[in-house]
TrEMBL record:
Belongs to the ABC transporter superfamily. The keyword Nucleotide-binding applies. InterPro entries: AAA+_ATPase, ABC_transporter-like_ATP-bd, ABC_transporter-like_CS, P-loop_NTPase. Coiled coil: none annotated. The keyword rRNA-binding does not apply. Keywords: ATP-binding, Nucleotide-binding, Transport. Residues 10-247 form the ABC transporter domain. SMART domains: AAA. PANTHER family: PROTEIN TRIGALACTOSYLDIACYLGLYCEROL 3, CHLOROPLASTIC. This is ABC transporter related. Involved in beta-(1-->2)glucan export. Transmembrane domains (TMD) form a pore in the inner membrane and the ATP-binding domain (NBD) is responsible for energy generation. GO terms for molecular function: ATP binding; ATP hydrolysis activity.
Length: 256
């Protein structure tokens, strides 16, 4: 388990997000501690991915305050905001690779966005990140359509790590993977987190991931975080949804 700082690297306070007449997040509070892997769970459609996209600025919030690295994102100027964005990486659902770009070009994309480097250095970065996530260098010249689901997730993770971030957002990283592939991906994330000292905010519904990869779990329900703590605390909770989720048939199979 990572050595975690008491200071939150992400601090969300009273955040509300609304689409039309539907309020998806309702005065939500959440802390993500430095150095931890936080698993963010909740019912389908509850707004887990919405919170991720709100933090990184892809979805506007109705109200509230979001601080990352101790900086209020609303108060940050353009240059300061770009500096913050360089310090995080994002793995979107299904990988979200650019289909018209090779693996090499996908990994290099965020580097080109923020840095002016020679092609030789860009190529070295791409190969290094591929090897880091357990893929062979020759994968670099393939297109996403030539990759398996597990390889797509690893390439997407390599792209998320391209700028050597301190903070990584993973949105359903094991969704669509077979149990062996999902387990290997969880172990990869855990290893990289320990090796690189990452903080990881992971949206997931995978009970295996919660057991094997996460230091803490936060649960979203009715637009708010209804519980946050260790797996033992989640299993001890008497909240109806938590009991159903952490003590159902699939949960018993994981624990067993």
């Amino acid at each position: 388990m990572a050595e975690q700082g008491s200071d939150p690297i992400i601090r969300v306070r009273d955040v509300s997000v609304q689409f039309g007449a539907t309020k998806v997040l309702d005065n939500l509070d959440l802390d993500v501690r430095r150095g931890e892997i936080l698993g963010f769970v909740g019912p389908s459609g509850a707004g887990k991915s919405v919170l991720t996209r709100t933090i990184i600025g892809l979805v506007p919030k109705l109200s509230g305050r979001i601080e990352v690295f101790g900086i209020d994102l609303d108060a940050a100027g353009k240059a300061e905001r770009r500096g913050i964005e360089r310090r995080w990486g994002v793995l979107f659902q299904q990988g979200a690779l650019f289909s018209s770009l090779t693996v090499r070009q996908n990994i290099q994309f965020p580097v080109r966005e923020y840095l002016k480097l020679s092609q030789r250095l860009l190529d070295e970065i791409a190969i290094a990140k591929l090897v880091m996530v357990g893929l062979k260098p020759e994968v670099a010249d393939r297109y996403p359509s030539e990759l398996s689901g597990g390889m797509i997730k690893r390439v997407a993770l390599a792209r998320a790590l391209a700028l050597d971030p301190e903070l990584v957002f993973l949105d359903e990283p094991t969704s669509g993977l077979d149990p062996i592939g999902a387990g290997e991906f969880d172990e990869l994330v855990r290893t990289l987190q320990r090796t690189l000292g990452l903080t990881v905010f992971m949206v997931t519904h995978d009970l295996d991931s919660l057991h094997t990869a996460c230091d803490r779990i936060a649960v979203l329900g009715d637009g708010k975080v209804i519980a946050a703590g260790s797996m033992a605390e989640m299993q001890a909770s008497q909240h109806p949804w938590l009991r159903s989720y952490f003590h159902g048939k699939r949960a018993r199979a994981v624990v067993g």
